[in-house]
């Protein structure tokens, strides 16, 4: 891997959307930390009901400090550096709910906005449920259609075929418009899919640091990740079946990643994984790409 980050923040757009491509809320949590760290401001907020099915992504009602009730509607937002504060720093970020309709039109709109800000690189951040143990380092899957990125970072093209989310639609539209795109996915244990995964969020931030040089203060995230892992250990200790299953996943992971692991062993492990979970789009190295 190249020593110098090839994704320059002023010209890079980071993208994550809630829902289907955000297991454990890992990707959106990571990018929210990026937005907060750099003080990025909204450049465009898309909340048009033509894009959203409110029975799928419901609005929220909340009570303000003055006692009034306010409804917060689903949206997807392009954030960027605050131009009123000097030159502004940091990347551009797209963050929000995954729209339900008119994906191609939305992708065109977002790509045009990105190009207007001289963005020429994009990192699509997602998180997928997978047959992985919570007790091991988070496995990150990376892929790109861009030859220069593949050569610089030693990553492959995605071989996935199947259903996709808005990330893929946006990524393909960006590529056709001349923006170099990198796909970055964290694997989250499927047996803890109902809770946020701070460990996966940390892994995404670490990978973004390698790619862009952006170093986001972790705050209490490290402690949260430790507590998350300890809580799962406690639950598993009370369930013999779950404990046995986790030990099986640990053995499989350690076998594949051991120095003695052969190419055939690795291929066999991936074949087992794909055959067992053919319905999940992240079931191929590189995510949905």
From TrEMBL:
Alphabetized, the UniProt keywords read: Ligase
State a single Gene Ontology molecular function.
ligase activity
Pfam families with a match to the protein in the record: PAC2
Q: Which domain of life is it from?
A: Bacteria
Q: Is NAD one of the keywords UniProt gives this record?
A: no
InterPro entries linked: Proteasome_assmbl_chaperone_2 (IPR019151), PSMG2_sf (IPR038389), Rv2714-like (IPR008492)
Keyword Ligase belongs to the record: yes
Name the record gives this protein: ATP-dependent carboligase
**What lineage does the source organism belong to?**
Bacteria, Bacillati, Actinomycetota, Actinomycetes, Micrococcales
């Amino acid at each position: 891997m190249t020593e110098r980050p090839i994704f320059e923040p002023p010209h890079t757009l980071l993208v994550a959307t809630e829902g289907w491509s955000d297991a454990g809320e890992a990707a959106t949590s990571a990018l929210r930390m990026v937005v907060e760290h750099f003080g990025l401001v909204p450049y465009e907020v898309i909340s048009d009901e033509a894009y959203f099915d409110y029975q799928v992504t419901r609005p929220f009602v909340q009570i303000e400090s003055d006692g009034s009730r306010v409804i917060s509607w689903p949206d997807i937002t392009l954030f960027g550096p605050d131009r009123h504060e000097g030159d502004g720093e940091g990347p551009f970020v797209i963050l929000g709910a995954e729209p339900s309709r008119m994906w191609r039109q939305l992708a065109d709109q977002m790509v045009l906005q990105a190009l207007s800000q001289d963005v020429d690189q994009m990192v699509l951040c997602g998180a997928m449920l997978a047959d992985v143990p919570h007790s091991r380092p988070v496995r990150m899957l990376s892929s790109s259609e861009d030859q220069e990125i593949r050569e610089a970072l030693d990553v492959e093209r995605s071989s996935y075929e199947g259903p996709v989310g808005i990330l893929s639609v946006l990524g393909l539209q960006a590529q056709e418009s001349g923006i170099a795109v990198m796909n970055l996915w964290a694997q989250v244990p499927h047996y803890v899919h109902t809770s946020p995964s701070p460990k996966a969020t940390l892994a995404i931030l670490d990978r973004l640091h390698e790619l862009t040089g952006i170093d986001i203060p972790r705050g209490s995230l490290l402690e949260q990740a430790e507590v998350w892992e300890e809580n799962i250990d406690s639950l598993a200790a009370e369930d013999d079946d779950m404990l046995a299953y986790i030990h099986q996943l640990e053995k499989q992971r350690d076998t594949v990643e051991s120095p003695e692991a052969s190419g055939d062993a690795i291929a066999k492990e991936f074949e087992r994984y794909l055959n067992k979970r053919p319905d999940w789009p992240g079931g191929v190295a590189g995510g949905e790409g």
